[in-house]
Structures are given as C-alpha cells and as structure tokens.
Amino acid sequence: MKNNPKIDAVITWVDGNDPRHRAKRDMFGDNKSLTKDDIAGDTRYTSVGEIMYCVASINRFAPWINKIYIVTDEQNPNVEPFLEKYFPEGHIPVEIVDHKVIFEGYEQYLPTFNSICLESMTWRIPGLSERFIEFNDDLILSAPTQPEDFFTEDGVVCYGREYSSLIIRFNGLFKYRKDGSKRVTFKGTMLNAAKLIGKRGKIIKIYHTPKALLKSIYKDFFEAHPEHLENNLRYRFRHAKQYNPQELMYLILYKQGRCELRRAYSQLLYIKPTEEPEFVLGRLAEFDSKANHKFGCFNSLDQTTEELRNTIIDWIERRIGLK
Q1: Measuring CA to CA, how many Å separate 83 from each of 78, 156, 272, 322?
Q2: Which of 17, 49, 111, 163 is 20 to 30 Å from 86 at the Cα level?
Q3: Whole-model pTM?
Q4: Residues near 224 by Cβ (< 8 Å), separated by ≥ 6?
Q5: Mean pLDDT of 76-84
Q6: On the CB side of 98, how many CA atoms lie within 13 Å of its CA?
Q7: Sheet holding 202-206, edge to edge
Q8: Closest to 118 in 3D by CA, of 139, 132, 97, 138
C-alpha cells in the first residue's frame, strides 16, 4: 500500500458486571427491554475478559496498527498489565475514549447502551486515522495480517457478499414477538441502511469480522444528512428502526467501486453460545488445521457452560500465542 498510511483499531467495550453500569441500565431501561437479548439483555454487556484477547490478538497478528482506541462508558479494562506481561518488549499504544468524547455536541443522547449508536460515532474519536478497523470485544485476529487484508489503494475490503433484500423482508415477517413487537436483527439493520440510501434490491451481507472503515465517508455523509445521524442516536437501547452504519459505508463505497468483497467464511471461525459442545469442538479442530485463517468471533461466551468456555479460552490463548 502506497505511503504506508496510518491505520488505527477501535474496540467498543463495556463491563456490564459493573454495578454502576447496571444501575444506569436499570434507570433508563424498562423491564420489557432489559429482558430481551436482542435489545438490552444482560448478555449484551457481560464481560468474561474477551477484551484482553482482542487486544492481544491485534498486537500479535497486526503489529502494524498505529494505535488501539477502546471506547467505554466511564470504565477502563486496564489492559496495560496484561500487555506488559505478554508483550514485554513493547506493544501498540492504547488509549481509552469515553462516550462523552465522541458524543460531544450530542450529549442529550447519553448515556447510551446501544452498540449501533456507538458505531455511528466512533469516527469522531479525536486523532483517529482516516483508515481504521473496528472490532467488537468478542472478535480476535487468529493469523498474521497485513493492511492489504483490510484496505485497497483507495477503498476498503469487506468480508461479505451481495444478498437479496427480498429474502430479508420475507424472513422479517416471522421476526415478531408474541406481543407484536419487532425483533432487532443484524440483517434488519443492514436492510435499513440500504433503504436509507435508496438501494432496495440488494444489500451487502456483512459478517462478524473486523470492519475496515474510512473516517471521511462518515464525516461527509453525516454532515450532509445530520438527521440520519440523530435518528440513529435517539435510541438508548437497540431498536428495529436503526440502521447499521458499517453497512451504510460499504454500500456507499461499493457504489463508487471502492469496496472489494471477499468471502467471509473462508476466513472466519464464528461460535454462537447455542452451539452443541460437539459442534464447537469440531469447529475448533477444523480451524486448527487452517493456520492462515484470520478471524475468530466468540459470541456471548457468558452463556456457554463453564467447561466449554474454558475450552474455548484455552484454544484462543494457544492460537494467539499466550501459551
């Protein structure tokens, strides 16, 4: 990549076990929302130390990253001692960024407990590079990477594929609860992004991998359409009317010929907490035979059995060289 431009990493993280954070959720939420995992159930905020493995994996497999920003709500995961232990010769600089910093001028929408809102605002981190890679804390890199795995000369690499909007709309007919409320789904938020810019036939189906993003695309779009930004921020908890801001960027760049699509599942190990232990063990063994596969996502580890969780953590630690 020409001129070797700086690339930062951004991780959104919260410790939902923190009594102060739980008290805030209880204050602003209601019993209906706080018991639904797609909106504000405890599992959306519970941490079992995933942030440490996420940060360690970036240091191990993407040492070319300029800085790691961790976006938090009056918290600090204290990753420094962990990094000093496992990377005694030095590690990528880490900076903690509070929600208040990226919501400057939009403080009326704080506190927020909504990852969609946060992902709509991370581009406002002071000092953030034009090119940045966004992680959830349940993501890891699982093999050596290069900037070319995420960015092209004038655009981004998206691990996803074109997907019919009609299929999502049809499946959405069955995504209502018994009380008539609409479920918040990952595909639904992608469909909302496509509708926002008038693309109704297809979306780019994105997967649970790190997302390569361009700060200027967000800045230009939201300066031209401030109402779309505020419409996404107004929901403190996830809502079916919100759109996925990463999907929005990819659709804009794809239309410009600046978004290169690559297959996700040829690179991704994705484990859900509802999987049977035998399936999980099989997937871990399969991935062990593919040392060049780059991404892992371990969704809601708090919901697995302790035995299976320990097995997964042991695998992660071996994969990223902590053992």
Answers
A1: 10, 29, 27, 11
A2: 17
A3: 0.90
A4: none
A5: 95
A6: 8
A7: 202-206, 156-164, 259-262
A8: 97
